[in-house]
Amino acid sequence: xxxxxxxxxxxxxDSAVSDRPISLSAFAHQVIxxxxxxxxxxxxxxxxxxxxxxxxxxVLSAQGRIxxxxxxxxxxxxxxxxxxxxxxxxxxxxxxxxxxxxxxxxAPVLRYEEGNLPDGETVYYRIVAVAPSKMTSLxxxxxxxxxxxxxxxxxxxxxxxxxxxxxxxxxxxxxxxxVRGYAVQRQAxxxxxxxxxxxxxxxxxTFTDPDLGDLATYSYKIVTINQVGAESLPSGAxxxxxxxxxxxxxKLEALSLxxxxxxxxxxxxxxxxxxxxxxxxxxxxxxxxxxIGFVDGKDTVxxxxxxxxxxxxxxTPLLDETRYFYKVQAVNIVDVPGPDSPVDNAVTKPVPEPxxxxxxxxxxxxxxxxxxxxxxxxxxxxxxxFRGRDPQSIQSLVAEVPVPxxxxxxxxxxxxxxxxxxxxxxxxxxxxxxxxxxxxxxxxPVPVKPRGLxxxxxxxxxxxxxxxxPEKDIQKYTISQKSFLLFWEKIGESSGTEYLYQGExxxxxxxxxxxxxxDRDQLxxxxxxxxxxxxx
Length: 536
Fold this sequence. Notes:
Elements: H1 24-46, E1 58-65, E2 68-74, E3 83-89, E4 97-102, E5 110-114, E6 122-130, E7 143-146, E8 155-160, E9 167-172, E10 179-188, E11 193-200, E12 206-209, E13 217-226, E14 238-241, E15 252-254, E16 262-266, E17 274-282, E18 290-296, E19 302-305, E20 323-332, E21 344-347, E22 359-360, E23 368-371, E24 380-388, E25 396-402, E26 407-410, E27 418-427, E28 439-442, E29 451-457, E30 462-467, E31 474-482, E32 488-494, E33 498-501, E34 510-519, E35 531-534
Antiparallel strand pairs: 1-2, 2-5, 3-4, 3-6, 6-7, 8-9, 9-12, 10-11, 10-13, 13-14, 15-16, 16-19, 17-18, 17-20, 20-21, 22-23, 23-26, 24-25, 24-27, 27-28, 29-30, 30-33, 31-32, 31-34, 34-35
């Protein structure tokens, strides 16, 4: 009988006859027990197993988890409840379907856990106790549980601009213990959003995006990721702009009139990322420019073109009196150059002008004396005298004359030889000037060989006579006789044109004579032809 409305739900009819005398109350009690047993069997057969004597399960807690739920039950003794049925529905009104069972155990709490549910999903549970007789308790009231939703969005996202080819992001780390990391999304300019990095660890609070473009705009969002990979809504977008190339060098100065070099100086670029400066040179203002050096350090703002830099450096001296054009670029730590500086130019120092008024003395003995006008340049250090046998090939450096002297001597020359000379000035920087005009000189020749030598017998001795030499400064003649060993031996001198032989004279012996002329500078000419005579 349904106690709510008094209607008969189940009915069962039976009869019994006692086989012995028995009291009516005892007989009725026996009949009722049998009827109740039969009624229970019928209820179980048709599926209506609820029994008022079976306790309703006592739910201690129910909570949602990440993509799952958890219910805790206080267990009944195993003799009272065989197991518990877990029923679930998508709505409070059902329909409920069995999704699991729990068996009582020697524990203060029975725990049921279910997974693989959608994020933020609300479900309803009812729990039924099943007795050993298969009868069930009334179900619990519907238990509402909502699974955990996606993690919360990141807050406090900021992006640092003005960095070289990188952007640094910072944010507030998530407090949700289920968060396991973050995903970084990036948009380059107005392009599409893309995921560029996944970061592990809830306490991550910064990320550096490297290898970006120069002076480029990037936008970023951060997504939180929980333990099962569920992602939060993206954070608000932030934008950063990377640093562009270094600033332009504003002022460049090139110093002129330096010997085969050009010193440069420029204004520094006061940016911490600048690591140095690249120096360029050209022969014309419009270029092309060639890189000729690099200066380390943003505060080093000087460079000398044409001078060796460092122990292993190599430098080619610049040409004299030549104009060169220069520009400089600041370079940052990732080798990005800045704009060109203004172009400046300089002219290297000219070499000294040709020496004027070079004169060479004539017919000096074994030397040539030269003189010239002093150069007008104020920094002349010395003069160099060059000699040659040919006016087109004057290459032998024969003397260096320090200033203020303006004359020099080329000594130890050959007699009677023509020489060609040029003189050039050398300044204090070692620059060698242009050559002077060619000056010519000849050394004094030796006397010609005497002519007309004769040997005559005058009855007692031998007289040698000859024609006088044409030179005006003949000082003496040297007479020689051929020895038996065929060597010529000096036997006397004469200032005139005859000589009396005083040596040994054997009858029938043939004697040979010759002579040389010597001038007042002791220059001795070639020997004359031989003169022979036989002693009578």
